[in-house]
Amino acid sequence: MKKIIMILTNGFDPDPRVYKEAKTLVQAGHDVEILCWDRENKYINKEDEIIDGIKIKRFFARSKYGTGYKQIIAYFKFIKEVKEYMKSKKYDALHCHDFDGLLIGSMLIKNDKNKKLVYDQHDLLYNYFMHRNGFFNKVIYRYIRYKEKILLKKVDTHIVVSPNMAKLYDGHRNILIINNAPYKTSFTDIKKEDRNKIVIGFIGGVRHYSQLKLLIDCSLDFKEHIDILLIGRGLALDKLKKYCLEHNVPHVSFAGGFKMSELEKLYKQIDITYAVYPKTAIVSMPNKFFESIITETPIIADVNTEFGKIVYDKKFGFVINSNQEVSTQLKDILRKIINDKNILNVIKSNMSKEKNKYCWENNIESLLSIYE
Question: Is 282 a residue whose pLDDT tops 70?
Fold first, then answer.
């Protein structure tokens, strides 16, 4: 049995990927504790918590998601609090989620070769700063690229989420692909609820205003046939609600936050998953991509992303090309869905034949091999 400390820069409410990894390790007999940064103080009354055997320790240096470098002071406070907490901790491994977690882990572990350092990279953090305006964002972008190259030399195992992300680090040692797939057993009842209209849903962090506004705008011509359901919290939520209110958009509804235990019920409420992201997500493999396949929910994606190419190649849904005019493409997709009643059934059949390849159970052996 290993004592594994995970470092996470969100509040674990819970983070689906981190939850599955931690639960898998606990079930294998390891002692897992997650040190996480609840920057918006949502769980101020749950500083210490245990979920499915996973120990959670939260820190509350306050800041706001999406404000970029303005969070730096709170981030340094989080680092200080974690370092103080870890002074008396005995552990075998640090499992660091994303670059901001790795930066902290490298400070804690220093040159102790008896402890394992794992870099679990969910996405490309530097892309976030590369596409933001301002001098400081460019400085942070360059710092992350430079510092990551140095820290990778200290990493024992580098986890990435997709083959294309692995290619970006070609030549580095011990790269392991662990995707964001759900447990096969998470969805046992996938039959959609009966309804008069087609429901296009987004389930996850409501962060990308432009992409979700695009769906709302393009659906206006089809509101007699289509409803939009946005499920989740995020920086863009209030802005989207305000937009729908000001423009009298009756066919769009918001369901707020959700628990992982509610996912099966939520996917029964939607017929199509909308999964169009900014260009920063080109190598990401979001949870909703895998969840949609398991629940046989056709997907709308950008063909320029890694998962969008799979949607296109495997005929798991519909794709737009974000390098071209997108409104016309998306309207054509919506029109096709309305006019061809059988098209969704064909896609569901394609998903049904392939979905056993897209479940979390396929990751377990690789994850456990890190801590043998």
Answer: yes
- Nearest to residue 290, comparing CAs of 157, 161, 98, 175? 161
CA distances from 351 to 43, 160, 208, 217, 305 (A): 37, 24, 27, 28, 19
Spatial distance between the Cα atoms of 94 and 104, rounded to a whole number of angstroms: 10
| Residue 104 three-state SS | helix
Whether the Cβ atoms of residue 339 and residue 312 lie closer than 8 Å to each other = no
For the chain, list the domains and their CATH numbers.
3-178 (3.40.50.2000), 184-357 (3.40.50.2000)
pLDDT of residue 258: 85
What are the backbone dihedrals phi and psi of residue 64, each rounded to the nearest 5 degrees, phi first? -125, 130
Q: Count Cα atoms within 13 angstroms, Cβ side, for 354.
A: 18
Residues 52-86 pLDDT 10s = 999 999 999 998 876 667 788 999 999 999 999 99
Residue 5 has pLDDT above 90, yes or no: yes
Which of 41, 330, 90 minimizes the C-alpha distance to 211?
Answer: 330
Q: Given pLDDT bands bounded at 50, 70 and 90, which one contains residue 341? A: confident
Query: Strands 198-203 and 272-275: what pairing?
Result: parallel
Asked whether 344 and 271 are in contact (CB, 8 A), the reply is yes
